[in-house]
Amino acid sequence: MSKGKQLMLMTACGVLSVSTAYAVPPGHGDEEVTSGDVTFSAKVEKQCGIDVTAASADLAFGDNYLDSTAQVKLINNEKDGKIEFRVEPIKTEDLGDQVTKNDVHFRAESSVSADMSAPDWEEGIEFSRDDLRSNNLVNLAARVSIDESNLDADDYELVTNWIIECD
Hints:
Order of helices and strands: HEEEEEEHEHEE
Helix content: 10-25%
Structural class: alpha+beta
Number of domains: 1
Strand content: 25-35%
């Protein structure tokens, strides 16, 4: 073989060996592994509110509540926050002349439960954020503490508006 062909063959072998040296996958061999940080972030805005999830229930008469309940969701995501939960002053006109505010009672069942007359509910109760962490749904029942045999035959309806204030 002539010197020119030998030189060309040696050059081709050198190029081939250099090319195969770069065919080693990253992370193997002498190459260094590099990394980079990726950050995901979001801001959660302060929330305070009430969401009515079941807007109606049956009204009971006498000393016992019915199984029928309305339901509200109390929302407060402020760290160490508190919620005052109360009913707006009720109007008993729709319940007739025989029923007063003191005859109306509400029961709230959640992680904190309460059974009070309407005037007491107008003052409200307080929940801490920790009280709501496990369950922020509140079931509400209503009753009139007069036996229905002592009331006039009629349709009775009590419309209430529930309020929360967050601290």
